[in-house]
Amino acid sequence: MGKFWLFSAAIDSGYIVLAVVGVLNSAISLYYYLRLVVFMYLKKETSGSEPTVSPALAFTLAVAIAATLALGVYPRYLFEIADRSAHALGVGGITASIR
Description:
Distance between the termini: 32 Å
Number of helices: 5
């Protein structure tokens, strides 16, 4: 729906060529997304070996999952880092736009 609204707003504003380019790019990306789904669910596995998970890969996955859960539940730390970075660049940060 977001792309539909974006493209219709572009057409309403007179940017028809830009909207056509956006629709064509969306169609091309749809081909690649559907190709992944076909390979994941519809293609038969050609090799008979079972995938193995090394200890390093298991550790990396555990750290990534823990970080995703922690930052998803407590995103304030990321907002503080972004705010400090914005202040360092002289932009003003999140808290300046809220006040």
